[in-house]
Amino acid sequence: MQMNKIDIKVKPVYIAEQSDPLNNHFVFSYTVTIHNNGTIPAKLLTRHWIITDGDGQTQEVKGDGVIGEQPHLQPGEGFQYTSGTFMNTPFGTMHGSYQMINDSGEKFNAEIPPFQLIAPNTLH
């Protein structure tokens, strides 16, 4: 079993009531589940997101923790939070990583796999 094994799942949702398609403003929320499947406790230090809209425009988001927290996860423990973003196109992708530190002081990155943000009834 791996010492540092953080699994991340993301569930995106289009927020129609906050979006304004006529003005190219598309709002999405996403719920992230972080699970420590490793053998040692680890703490989430920072986040790094790369958001790419349908026109290929990229924005990067970096910061400490997630939603104001830096969860410390024991082996087998999980943490879930919901956040959001907006784009100028009805579809795009997000991916990134969390920088973690385990209780031995070793820093490592937990990759956030790419996922799609798609407004309903959007033709590609």
Descriptive account of the structure:
This protein is mainly beta and 124 residues long. It has a single domain, classed as ApaG domain (Immunoglobulin-like, Sandwich). It is 0% helix and 60% strand. It contains no helices and eight strands. It has strands at residues 6-14, 26-36, 42-53, 58-64, 72-73, 78-87, 91-102, 107-118. Strand 3 (42-53) and strand 4 form a beta hairpin. The N and C termini lie far apart (41 Å). The mean pLDDT is 96.
Features:
124 residues, mainly beta, Immunoglobulin-like, three-stranded antiparallel sheet, 8 strands, 0% helix
Write the layout of secondary structure elements.
Elements: E1 6-14, E2 26-36, E3 42-53, E4 58-64, E5 72-73, E6 78-87, E7 91-102, E8 107-118
Antiparallel strand pairs: 1-2, 2-6, 3-4, 3-5, 3-7, 7-8
